[in-house]
Amino acid sequence: MKIDKSLHEDYAVLTLKGEFDTFYCPILMEEVDSLVERGVHNIILNMRLVKFINSTALGAIIRAHKRCKAEGGELVVDRPSSFVRDIVGKLGIDQVVPMFDSEEAATKHIIKTLNASELVGDTPVDQAKILIAFPDETRNQQIGGKKTLVGTMANVDGNRLQFVWSGERSGISADQAKQLFFQGSDLKLKFQVKLIKKGYFEILAKVREVRSTDDGSIRVTAVYDKISEGDQAALGQFAADMEFLKRQLPES
Asked: How many structural domains is the chain composed of?
């Protein structure tokens, strides 16, 4: 089986071609895990060219679906072949994993999921994902190679941002994490604030402060080192707008 990947702004499409059997289950999960770690939690599986699928592969699709769900996203099947549709229908798997007859219908479902998730949370950036990369080889070696880490946004304005990161899944303690994000170190950051910009902000920043949290994560404050004037103005305006709106809300 072959897997082609197509990345969009808020989701990815994995097109499966050939026979999907036990051998390819780890390959699919690696693709899904890689996307999720990069902050892509919504995935469409295009299965119109899948000629055969076995029970283990069906289990892998369910696991991949649960993986996306755990991150607040969704995994759906788009245009299953007649063989896949017959098997999935007989086993009732389409009652667990959404299935659609067209790419348009699958995409609309993903967008609906995204819109719903954006209504959850206290602020437009709280709990949003931030992609973190180290520009130096030393720290990349410490985390096992050049990787993109995924943190959780906490606050942002025109001069700095704060995020929370946990190394638990990578076996990195809070103390070790503090060494990775030491004061004055450089970071490459990528994130979205959809209220002011459809695309991503990509910023070079320096760590100003890092603190441990009660759950073993770290909270990092980073100041911008290299940012366009337009992006800095937009983030500053966003912070000012949010502060104004908070003042207008009645106190509970």
From this structure: 2
